[in-house]
Amino acid sequence: MSDTGLVPVAEKVGALAAEHAQEADRTRKLAPEVVEAVREAGFARHFVAKSHGGNEGGFAELTQAVMAVGEGCASTAWCASLTALSARYATHLPQLGHDELWGSGADTFVVTAQPPLGKATTASGGHRLSGRWAYVSGVDFADWALVCGMVATGGEPEARFFALPRRDFTVVEGWDNAGMRATSSHNVIVDDVFVPEHLSFLRADFISGKNSTSDLPAHNVPFQAVGGLTFVGPAVGAAYGALTAAINAMSGKKVNTTQGVDLCRASAQIDSARFLVEQNAQVLDERTFTPRLMARCERNAAFTAESLVDAVGTLVRAAGTSGFSENSPLQRFWRDIVSASSHVALRYETAVARTWPAALTGE
Asked: What is the pTM assigned to this prediction?
């Protein structure tokens, strides 16, 4: 596992995020000092090349750090995870694009909108892009947005990613989910913006993981291998936060056998979930991208999400009415985990459609 020093710093970020979590949940915004702590910790630069001031970190280390933050605040962990992995996606840009994103520093906050919902036309030296993308997490404090659109060509349209500086897109608030409230997962609107060629790359390269610009191992990973790791790591951390909150809610009370069994069972589910998530990260760092292992990664993510929803539901039942108090972090963790686990990347249907047919025949 790489050691850039991210994990111990992330534990401090998690503690700070916990102090502001209730207010962030109420206002639907991360506190500025929490956002700055995420930046200073090194999440944004974790996968950036050392030649641009980055850390060239690995997946296992990032996963440990994200889970540490998630124990304090799931929304903060979600944004930390996404900005790290969005920067990794941006490494597919041509070298001039790297220079523009990270030329003045490696702590650029990048966010990503993966669905190809935009439309672009070829122009001299680049493309002209328009579109609207929903659920772009972390966009309130993004420096750049990486959005995907279809480009009209002489033959079949091709999907491309486009990197846009903050001045080139508009943010329209639209995130009203009951959980993960402070992720700022709002809408991004682009209206006929010119994007130079060095700020664009093919979506097919993103999917395959073949990076023609960088030969760093972490920059050459198939998207299917990453699977739901981006989204399930914050949920695992939040589950540990929920476990602590449930124990605190029951502190000083007489705990009956049923409640004890619930706590025992839920804690085992959470530990098992962590093991599966760490197993996924190990596959990415060891670069063992066989069809069966990629299928296992997606299965692990879906199963973990399902297990965490079950576990946090059990914790809520064990804690009783006090766990639903407005001032109790347990009910917030419960809402956050259920919300996070609804992501399309964490569904069995997604895992089966993308990898399991190949897994049955490949080694």
From this structure: 0.94
DSSP SS3 for 27: helix
Q: Which of 66, 40, 43 is nearest to 55 (CA)?
A: 43
Which range, 70-74, 205-209, 292-296, is most confident? 70-74
Give the C-alpha distances (Å, rounded to integers) separating 149 from 53, 55, 186, 288, 300.
30, 30, 18, 31, 30
Locate all alpha helices (DSSP H) within the chain, ordered by sequence. Answer: 6-27, 32-41, 59-70, 74-90, 95-102, 203-208, 223-226, 229-250, 257-286, 291-319, 329-340, 348-354, 356-361
| Three-state SS at 33 | helix
CA dihedral 139, 145, 146, 149 (to 10 degrees): 90
pLDDT in tens, 224-261: 888 789 999 999 999 999 999 999 988 877 878 888 89
Phi/psi for 210 (5° steps) reads -80, 110
Instruction: Tell me the two tokens of residue 341.
Output: 């686990």
CATH architecture of 223-361: Up-down Bundle (1.20)
Q: Does domain 110-202 have CATH number 3.40.50.300?
A: no
Domain residue ranges in the chain? 6-105, 110-202, 223-361
136 three-state secondary structure: strand
6-105 under CATH 1.10.540.10, yes or no: yes
Contact 363, 290 (CB under 8 A): yes
SS3 61: helix
Return the closest-CA partner of residue 115 out of 129, 131, 94. 131
The helix/strand/coil state of 213 is coil
Q: Do domains 6-105 and 223-361 have the same CATH topology?
A: no
For residues 195 and 129, the answer to whether their CB atoms sit within 8 Å is yes
**DSSP summary character for residue 219:** G
Kindly state the average pLDDT of the residues 193-206.
96
Angstrom distance (rounded) from CA 89 to CA 356:
24
Rounded distance, CA 59 to CA 65, Å? 10
Distance (Å, whole) CA 237 – CA 81: 12
